[in-house]
């Protein structure tokens, strides 16, 4: 999400559903509609309201919301156990903090990038998951040219460096004493409207900008441009992944459009179309220094019985996604798509996208999805919180 959502409702509407072919409502009123290949396992009630993003490190998942952050032991993937939940107010901070989406952590330190009500960078020691402690809280002053917090903040080099979506560069070699470097990583580069950066492998970063950029960041303060991916219609790029540490032939991309109650046609193009999930070719990028789009798919409205909502609140959009651990030049992706819930996309060997399944919650607005194993997915939802899903379908797609 690229801006603060005022007055997010609980979406507490339970729909009376008929059973479509290959799908059906679950008997548990806290669940939703699941398609073929998708099984709803359980709803975990601790995180109801504003849960935004997460990251899995080892056998823990680290989650953040506008009110708290939580750590769960996921050594039993189908049965996560809460280890600790820390409310921002417990740390002496504002009780409401917006918004750390792409949860930056290495399992030792965790970063909360707060852009409202303050512009602040919080560094949390999570080396003891049961007893997290805040070790740094850096707040920008109105006169500051550079700001500590960005909408998303990403770890580079095992969280010894941070890069922010607005261009912030933070030296975090000493987590208790972060240093804001007075330089924008985006300075002199063509990428605009930055939303996120992803460390593809140590020293190399892919940016969710327009155009997308692949950067050599072995010197984190002076990146070098290696390749570009230009949609040529000024669409907003939300998040990017390049599987196999940049060795896959596909770059995976999502786009975001907020606050549209109705969807455009699935064939619509341009910046006014609702955000698409996309595949881009990375074949031959070393020679051409470019990526090009292969295929795209957009979520749609429906009547609920077809797995699509009749109206949207946060917008017809694709959001945070994760490729299956077995992804290799194609495979399966799980994605949070706001009121369209968790969607499973199949990527064919030629890069085309097929719908493989979905979990459409009775009430909710799904922010993200993360694979715990090649079958277990954690669904992260602004309204619902935390659901555990199981994908039973094929992992390779033709």
Question: Mind sketching the topology for me?
Answer:
Blueprint: E1 23-25, E2 32-35, E3 38-44, E4 51-57, E5 60-65, E6 68-73, E7 81-87, E8 109-114, E9 120-125, E10 133-139, E11 153-156, E12 161-164, E13 169-171, E14 179-181, E15 192-201, E16 204-210, E17 212-216, E18 224-229, E19 237-241, H1 243-246, E20 250-255, E21 276-281, H2 285-288, E22 290-298, E23 321-323, E24 331-336, E25 342-347, E26 353-361, E27 366-371, E28 376-381, E29 385-391
Parallel strand pairs: 18-22
Antiparallel strand pairs: 1-2, 2-26, 3-29, 4-5, 5-6, 6-7, 8-9, 9-10, 11-12, 12-13, 13-14, 15-16, 16-17, 17-18, 19-20, 20-21, 21-22, 23-24, 24-25, 25-26, 27-28, 28-29
Overview of this protein structure:
The protein is 2% helix and 43% strand. By secondary structure, the protein is mainly β. It has an 8-stranded mixed beta sheet. A 6-stranded antiparallel beta sheet has the order 1-2-26-25-24-23, with no helix packed on it. The chain is globular, with a radius of gyration of 20 Å. The model is unreliable at 3-22 (pLDDT under 50).
Key structural traits:
398 residues; mainly beta; Methylamine Dehydrogenase, Chain H; eight-stranded mixed sheet; six-stranded antiparallel sheet; 2% helix; globular; disordered N terminus
Structural class label: mainly beta
Strand content: 35-45%
CATH architecture: 7 Propeller
pLDDT < 50 stretches = 3-22
The side-by-side strand order for the widest beta sheet comes to 15-16-17-18-22-21-20-19
Q: Work out the radius of gyration.
A: 20 Å
CATH superfamily: YVTN repeat-like/Quinoprotein amine dehydrogenase
């Amino acid at each position: 999400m690229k801006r603060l959502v005022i007055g997010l409702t609980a979406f507490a509407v339970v729909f009376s559903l008929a059973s479509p072919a290959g799908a059906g409502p679950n008997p548990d009123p806290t669940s939703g509609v699941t398609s073929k290949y998708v099984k709803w396992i359980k709803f975990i009630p601790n995180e109801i309201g504003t849960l935004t993003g997460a990251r899995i490190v080892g056998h823990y998942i680290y989650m953040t919301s506008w009110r708290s952050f939580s750590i769960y032991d996921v050594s039993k993937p189908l049965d996560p156990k809460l280890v600790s939940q820390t409310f921002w107010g417990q740390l002496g901070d504002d009780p409401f903090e917006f918004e750390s989406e792409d949860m930056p952590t290495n399992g030792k330190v965790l970063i909360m990038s707060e852009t409202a009500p303050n512009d602040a960078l919080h560094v949390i020691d999570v080396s003891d998951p049961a007893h997290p402690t805040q070790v740094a809280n850096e707040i920008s002053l109105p006169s500051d040219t550079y700001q500590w917090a960005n909408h998303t903040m990403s770890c580079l080099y095992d969280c010894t460096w941070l890069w922010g979506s607005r261009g912030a560069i933070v030296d975090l070699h000493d987590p208790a004493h972060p240093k804001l470097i007075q330089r924008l990583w985006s300075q002199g580069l063509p990428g605009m409207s930055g939303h996120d950066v992803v460390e593809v492998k140590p020293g190399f970063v892919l940016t969710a900008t327009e155009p997308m950029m692949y950067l050599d960041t072995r010197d984190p303060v002076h990146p070098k441009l290696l390749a570009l991916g230009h949609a040529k219609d000024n669409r907003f790029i939300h998040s990017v992944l390049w599987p196999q540490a940049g060795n896959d032939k596909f770059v995976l991309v999502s786009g975001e459009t907020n606050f549209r109650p109705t969807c455009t046609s699935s064939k619509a193009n341009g910046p006014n179309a609702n955000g698409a999930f996309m595949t881009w070719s990375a074949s031959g990028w070393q020679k051409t220094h470019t990526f090009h789009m292969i295929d795209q798919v957009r979520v749609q409205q429906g009547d609920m019985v077809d797995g699509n909502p009749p109206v949207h609140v946060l917008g017809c959009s694709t959001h945070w996604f994760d490729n299956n651990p077995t992804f290799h030049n194609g495979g399966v992706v799980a994605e949070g798509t706001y009121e369209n819930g968790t969607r499973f996309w199949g990527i064919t060997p030629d890069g085309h996208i097929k719908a493989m399944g979905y979990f459409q919650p009775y009430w909710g607005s799904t922010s993200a999805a993360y694979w715990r194993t090649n079958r277990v997915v954690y669904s992260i939802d602004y309204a619902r919180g935390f659901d555990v899903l199981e994908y039973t379908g094929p992992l390779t797609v033709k």
